[in-house]
């Protein structure tokens, strides 16, 4: 119980109330001491009035008056004349004198605490002003022991009352905290647990009902989170089902298109001029369809295998990529350049890095070819203390805004008409597998630039 919110509130309430009572206790005891001494002065003054009525008091009556007043001697000063009105034998020397005619708060508290924590009995002199202006001052001598015992008794009663008040206050606060905080918080936790156990069950979605503003905000935030997460889970499930169906269809379609691609090789040998003219377009269409199916199947595996990292010469890999793309364009208007330091070695999976660079270069080549004009594709690389950097830059028309917004999103980030947007999504996934980042550095009417960062890490040889 003590490690719960309400239990800790209970403990803190008791501690703080007792602390407040201690702060009140000190001036209270000081005030009690002052009242006690003033009462002794008043009783002594009343006892001295008996002498006013009869100048010849017996010794026994005088002793009885002093005992009832709780003092040893009574001195009254009138008109600058000090007069010993009542007296008895003082058992010990006077230890201290206290003037109550105009005491400060600090002096009262100091004297009270000294008396409270000083054990034993002593004789003290107390000076005060007579009541009803019966003189200039009244002075008494008395024992300090009874005063200290009365102060201790008063202090214990104050502390006992403080304990009762703190306990009562703590119980009330405990019940209030449980009603207004703990119960609503447990309700929120219960909704979270039910939702975590069965996200598809709509009964686990919270219904905000808290009256406390902060808890209400927490419930509304949880409601928004649960609603968005439920929609995301449903969408993910539908995409998974769709992905499985698309993968099956793409597999069968690829086999069909591969067979059709073989037939087109025979069609190209036809002597019919019309067939010979349309055959290349048919071949191109089938080739693009096969490529789309293969990309869809690759993405449908959900994750690429972990890269097999090793040191490789980046210049040779880039040369292979450029040679492959040159075959696709022949001696056209697209130029390829490689600016790779001859001895630059990078730590990567050679097959996966080849696919990433090939995809970026091929996208650049297709973008430039779509314009029908000239262009240049440049692959650059450098290294610093922490990373290797590979840059693919082209002088093409730049990416459309829609493609930039969904660049690495499958089936949404296609930059060219008819593209599926899988190439960049797969490339980004492969680079992340190396611990790196693939990002669009810049794009515009003067060209596009992609940047690959591969961390060197602790495994560099």
Automatic annotation (TrEMBL):
Broad class of enzyme this protein falls into: transferase
InterPro entries assigned: HATPase_C_sf, HATPase_dom, His_kinase_dom, HisK_dim/P_dom, HisK_dim/P_sf, Sig_transdc_His_kin-like_C
Xref: PROSITE patterns: HIS_KIN
Keywords: ATP-binding, Coiled coil, Kinase, Membrane, Nucleotide-binding, Phosphoprotein, Transferase, Transmembrane, Transmembrane helix, Two-component regulatory system
Pfam families noted in UniProt: HATPase_c, HisKA
Segments traversing the membrane: 6-30, 158-181
EC number, as in UniProt: 2.7.13.3
Coiled coil: 215-242
Domain Histidine kinase: 248-458
SUPFAM superfamilies the record matches: ATPase domain of HSP90 chaperone/DNA topoisomerase II/histidine kinase, Homodimeric domain of signal transducing histidine kinase
Reactions performed catalytically: ATP + protein L-histidine = ADP + protein N-phospho-L-histidine
GO MF term set: kinase activity
The protein's name in its UniProt record: histidine kinase
Organism: Sedimentitalea xiamensis
């Amino acid at each position: 119980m003590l490690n719960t919110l309400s239990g800790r509130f209970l403990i803190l309430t008791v501690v703080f109330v007792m602390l407040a009572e201690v702060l009140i206790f000190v001036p209270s005891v000081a005030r009690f001491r002052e009242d006690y001494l003033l009462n002794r002065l008043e009783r002594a003054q009343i006892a001295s009035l008996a002498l006013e009525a009869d100048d010849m008091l017996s010794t026994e009556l005088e002793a009885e008056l002093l005992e009832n007043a709780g003092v040893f001697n009574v001195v009254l000063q009138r008109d600058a004349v000090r007069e010993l009105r009542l007296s008895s034998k003082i058992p010990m020397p006077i230890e201290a004198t206290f003037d109550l005619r105009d005491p400060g708060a600090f002096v009262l508290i100091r004297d009270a605490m000294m008396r409270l924590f000083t054990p034993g009995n002593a004789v003290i002199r107390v000076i005060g002003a007579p009541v009803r202006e019966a003189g200039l001052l009244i002075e008494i001598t008395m024992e300090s022991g009874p005063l200290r015992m009365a102060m201790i008794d008063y202090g214990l009663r104050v502390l006992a009352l403080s304990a009762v008040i703190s306990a009562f206050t703590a119980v009330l606060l405990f019940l209030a905290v449980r009603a207004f905080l703990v119960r609503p918080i447990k309700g929120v936790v219960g909704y979270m647990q039910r939702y975590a156990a069965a996200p598809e069950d709509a009964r686990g979605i919270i219904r905000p009902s808290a009256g406390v503003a902060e808890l209400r905000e927490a419930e509304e935030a949880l409601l928004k989170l649960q609603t968005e997460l439920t929609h995301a889970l449903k969408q993910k499930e539908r995409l998974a089902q769709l992905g499985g169906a698309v993968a099956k269809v793409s597999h069968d379609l690829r086999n069909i298109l591969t067979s059709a691609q073989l037939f087109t090789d025979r069609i190209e040998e036809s002597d019919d001029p019309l067939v010979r003219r349309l055959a290349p377009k048919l071949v191109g269409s089938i080739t693009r369809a096969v490529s789309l199916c293969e990309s869809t199947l690759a993405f449908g595996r959900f994750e690429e295998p972990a890269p097999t990292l090793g040191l490789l010469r980046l210049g040779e890999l880039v040369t292979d990529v450029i040679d492959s793309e040159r075959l696709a364009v022949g001696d056209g208007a697209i130029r390829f350049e490689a600016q790779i330091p001859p001895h630059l070695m990078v730590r990567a999976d050679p097959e996966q890095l080849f696919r990433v660079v090939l995809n970026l270069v091929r996208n650049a080549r297709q973008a430039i070819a779509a314009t029908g004009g000239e262009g240049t594709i440049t692959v650059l690389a450098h290294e610093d203390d922490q990373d290797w950097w590979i840059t693919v830059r082209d002088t093409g028309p730049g990416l459309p805004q829609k493609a930039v917004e969904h660049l690495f999103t499958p089936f949404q980030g296609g930059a060219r008409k008819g593209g599926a947007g899988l190439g960049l999504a797969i490339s980004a996934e492969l680079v992340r597998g190396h611990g790196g980042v693939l990002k669009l550095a810049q794009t515009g009417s003067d060209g596009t630039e992609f940047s690959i960062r591969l961390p060197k890490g602790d495994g560099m040889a």
